[in-house]
Design brief:
The chain has 327 residues and is α+β, with helices and mostly antiparallel strands. It has 2 domains: 202 residues, Lamin Tail domain (Immunoglobulin-like); 63 residues. The protein contains 8 helices and 11 strands.
């Protein structure tokens, strides 16, 4: 069990905390058009993003709200929900009830429209971006943890996007300083903009990184054998301890039986009342048994069933037979 728990620890890192802001568009073209934000599920398992919070409020603003509510023992989710109600144009909670769409498959994207119209559907946010100024966007988990954020520079032009560079930069860790952002204008294949369906990585970055560190596979072989032999050693220890525990219980039970046997035999040899010997006692017990079990238990109901052709029903037997007088 301990080994399973240790091996399961890496899987705890997967999930909602691995959702990343992947690309942002402020304005679609020079004539207008709403912006959008593309998110990326960088984990290797499906992730439900319902009840996560998207906001344009800065880290300092959110932290100030949390600090003001420290004394009232409110949960972070309740604080964020109340903030949604107080400032509906600045923070948005991805609603429940749309599990089919809000459950994001592993290593895939989903897009949130920054059109200021949340009534249009689950993936429509209540705020818009402003061209020509820095735009901030952040994603919070239901427990109040900041999952990811990014500031889109004011220099971004209409029709351009601010995106994570595709070559091996995902998954990233928040504030690790290693994520590289670039501007995409859609003029080349490398800077193509295909909303919600691009930056698909044919190469697994983790596998490639492991290959660079262990090109011959020695470490992975050593790790695999260590896991197998550790599991076998753990099973051996468990079975050994279980066997010792069972043997000790069996020995204690035997000692208890042996200690109780002389007392039982002595009690059986002593006649009840102190006057009767064993044979008389056995005779009395047998007589009581015979008396108590003399008859089977019966209902006490008699059932009479008529029979056809009985000799008692013959008419000849009902007539009086006269004596024969001889002359």
């Amino acid at each position: 069990m301990l080994l399973c728990a240790i091996l399961a620890l890496p899987t705890l890192a997967q999930g909602r905390k691995n959702v990343r802001i992947n690309e942002v568009m402020v304005q679609q073209d020079s004539t207008g058009g709403n912006g959008w934000v593309e998110f990326y599920n960088s984990s290797y398992s499906s992730t439900a993003v319902e009840q996560m919070f998207i906001t344009t409020l800065s880290r300092e603003d959110i932290q100030n709200v949390f600090d003001k509510n420290k004394g009232n023992k409110k949960k972070p989710k309740q604080i964020l929900v109340e903030l949604c109600e107080a400032q509906p144009n600045d923070i948005y909670e991805i609603p429940r009830g749309d599990e089919r769409n809000t459950k994001i498959a592993p290593r895939t994207h989903f897009v949130m429209e920054a059109d200021g119209d949340p009534k249009s559907g689950t993936f429509h946010m209540p705020f818009t971006f402003t061209l020509g100024k820095d735009n901030y966007i952040a994603l919070y988990d239901v427990n109040g943890d900041l999952v990811d954020d990014v500031t889109i520079p004011a220099s971004l032009k209409p029709g351009e996007t601010y995106a994570i560079k595709a070559e091996g930069s995902l998954p990233s860790i928040l504030d690790d300083g290693k994520t590289e952002w670039i501007v995409k204008d859609g003029n080349t294949i490398e800077t193509a903009i295909t909303k919600g369906n691009y930056n698909i990585r044919e190469v697994n970055e983790n596998i490639e990184a492991f290959h660079d560190k262990d090109p011959h596979g020695y470490w992975i072989a050593l790790l695999a054998m260590s896991v197998v032999f550790s599991a076998l050693a753990l099973l051996y220890i468990c079975f050994k301890l279980f066997g010792k525990f069972a043997s000790r219980n069996l020995a204690e039970n035997k000692q208890t039986e042996q200690a109780a046997a002389p007392a039982t035999a002595q009690a059986a040899s002593v006649p009840a009342g102190g006057d009767l010997d064993g044979e008389k006692m056995a005779a009395i017990c047998f007589a009581l048994y015979q008396h108590m079990n003399a008859h089977d238990q019966e209902s006490g109901v008699l059932t009479l069933t008529p029979r056809d052709g009985s000799a008692w029903a013959g008419k000849t037997n009902l007539m009086r037979e006269l004596p024969v007088i001889k002359k």
